[in-house]
């Protein structure tokens, strides 16, 4: 009799434990899924504010935007932007974070924007472009993210169009493919000066990060002239990223966009 009672008690305990574990797993999965933003379905950009409760994704100074040239304020640049890219700067690693291909940099390259120094932290890509110029969507957009010592952010947005091969993109893509959720150490030199960025022809405005938490008060510098890369290079990047990893156009909300010449 005692043996039967003991077996019954053990069975009940196992059932209760199993139910609790199932609930915990289910809750964990729900929490994980709840906070996993993406570019499609119920976790697409239109739903980011529902997923990221403490974000700025519903703010009034969001990015990207459609830049209409005739509506910009033209100003003399007065050396507001200076770019200091060295051929000795090292890429530390490349990562496929499930949202884009991202290259992280060691200390070296920097920009000076409005008398403040910002250090290049990482480069990532969006296909097609997030920013538009006069309604035109480009095949690719590269974001060079810079941060100063106070934590302020300045991003260089470089649009790309299809044409001849780019040695810079050939170098980037030499580390691909890379699986979702993985990274590779690189520690190799890269010379970004080959981008030939024209510091006298760019648009600037105050916006946000284009991914959660959509942090605002980001200095955006979008170059008017696109860089050239081949169709094959565009496709290779595209095959390593989510399809259409771009955020939809955001309202300007009375912000001023400057054209710096």
UniProtKB/TrEMBL annotation:
<dbReference type="InterPro" id="IPR018338">
    <property type="entry name" value="Carbonic_anhydrase_a-class_CS"/>
</dbReference>
<protein>
    <recommendedName>
        <fullName>Carbonic anhydrase</fullName>
        <ecNumber>4.2.1.1</ecNumber>
    </recommendedName>
</protein>
<keyword id="KW-0479">Metal-binding</keyword>
<dbReference type="InterPro" id="IPR041891">
    <property type="entry name" value="Alpha_CA_prokaryot-like"/>
</dbReference>
<comment type="function">
    <text>Reversible hydration of carbon dioxide.</text>
</comment>
<keyword id="KW-0456">Lyase</keyword>
<dbReference type="Pfam" id="PF00194">
    <property type="entry name" value="Carb_anhydrase"/>
</dbReference>
<feature type="domain" description="Alpha-carbonic anhydrase">
    <location>
        <begin position="35"/>
        <end position="261"/>
    </location>
</feature>
<comment type="similarity">
    <text>Belongs to the alpha-carbonic anhydrase family.</text>
</comment>
<dbReference type="GO" id="GO:0008270">
    <property type="term" value="F:zinc ion binding"/>
</dbReference>
<dbReference type="InterPro" id="IPR001148">
    <property type="entry name" value="CA_dom"/>
</dbReference>
<keyword id="KW-0862">Zinc</keyword>
<dbReference type="InterPro" id="IPR036398">
    <property type="entry name" value="CA_dom_sf"/>
</dbReference>
<dbReference type="InterPro" id="IPR023561">
    <property type="entry name" value="Carbonic_anhydrase_a-class"/>
</dbReference>
<dbReference type="GO" id="GO:0004089">
    <property type="term" value="F:carbonate dehydratase activity"/>
</dbReference>
């Amino acid at each position: 009799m005692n043996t039967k009672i003991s077996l019954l008690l053990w069975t009940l305990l196992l059932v209760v434990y199993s139910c609790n574990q199932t609930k915990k797993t289910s809750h964990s999965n729900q929490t994980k899924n709840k906070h996993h933003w993406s570019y499609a379905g119920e976790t697409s950009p239109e739903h980011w504010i529902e997923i990221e409760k403490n974000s700025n994704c519903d703010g009034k100074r969001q990015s990207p935007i459609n830049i209409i040239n005739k509506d910009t304020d033209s100003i003399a640049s007065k050396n507001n932007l200076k770019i200091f890219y060295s051929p000795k700067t090292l890429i530390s690693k490349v990562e496929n974070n499930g949202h884009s291909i991202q290259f992280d940099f060691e200390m070296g390259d920097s920009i000076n924007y409005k008398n403040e120094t910002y250090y290049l932290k990482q480069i990532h890509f969006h296909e097609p472009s997030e920013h538009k110029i006069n309604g035109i969507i480009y095949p690719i957009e590269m974001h060079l993210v810079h941060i100063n010592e106070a934590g302020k952010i300045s991003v260089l947005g470089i649009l790309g169009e299809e044409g001849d091969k780019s040695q810079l993109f050939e170098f980037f893509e030499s580390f691909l493919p890379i699986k979702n959720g993985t990274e590779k150490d690189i520690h190799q030199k890269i010379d970004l000066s080959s981008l030939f960025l024209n510091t006298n022809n760019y648009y600037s405005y105050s916006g946000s990060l284009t991914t959660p938490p959509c942090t605002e008060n980001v200095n955006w510098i979008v170059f008017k002239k696109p860089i050239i890369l081949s169709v094959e290079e565009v496709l290779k990047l595209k095959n390593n990223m989510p399809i259409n990893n771009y955020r939809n156009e955001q309202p300007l909300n009375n912000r001023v966009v400057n054209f710096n010449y």
